[in-house]
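so my prof wants the structure for this chain in the tokens format not the other one, which i didnt know existed until like an hour ago. anyway here's the sequence
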Amino acid sequence: MPKIYPTAIVHPSAQVAEDVEIGPYCLVEADVSIGPGTVLRDHVVVRRYTTLGRGNFVDAFVALGGEPQDLKFDPKTITYLRIGDDNIFREGVTISRATGQGQATVVGHKTYWMVGAHAGHDSVIEDQAILTNHAAVAGHATIGRRTILSAYAAVHQFCWVGEMVILQGNAGLSMHAPPYVMVADGVNHVVGLNLVGLRRAPDITETDRRQIREAFDLTYRRGLDRQAVLEAMDAHSEWGQAAGKFRDFVHRVDAAKKPHNRGLCTLGSAKQIQIHDQAETD
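here's what i got, hopefully its the right format
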């Protein structure tokens, strides 16, 4: 049976797997599901309508499934927070449930959340994303697979952040960031590709990296308008899946309607790009 510390409070309707550990002063509300191998350390709060999959580790003072920070939200609305498997939530992490009836905030598998990180209502955090200390994701935003948000990085509501993006410390996004790029400190400044991440990724080949570079250059370095960029990328029928994700993302941004019509983030200053390029060669 679950190992539940005497001072923890677990609602009788909560579904708790046999080998779950729930530490001192934790609170698990009604209509919660906690999967096998999950550990709640101490002072963890798991609010109603939250689901945790297998093998999650939840450190002290984490609050999962709290009501949305939205002045329009009606507390009677039934919404959800759905969390996958093998995630790590360090001290003070907060994630809100969704706003619309029957909708969900979603966290994938093998994500890592450092101290004080936050994700707002209706957001989607995909597999293997890392949110560093006090990174913040606003409502309705999407953080792509294997993306890293460095300390104090912030993503505005309704923004899309593509796969394997890195936001440097204190970086901000109020526009969309395509896959594989690096976003510098400041707001909406792309300074190059996440070259280290691309080299380390086991599923990205040398050919993929060359094609991703071609897609990046067409988008940011040729001085083309958006229609010309899309036409030029569409002409590359030889591109594989990786560069195809970059192209598809730009198409999606171009076709976005309100409230997602935020445009692509722009190329940073010459000084920011120089700093990025120098760091990549060190």
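also thought this was worth mentioning. The chain has two domains: 3-140, 203-281.
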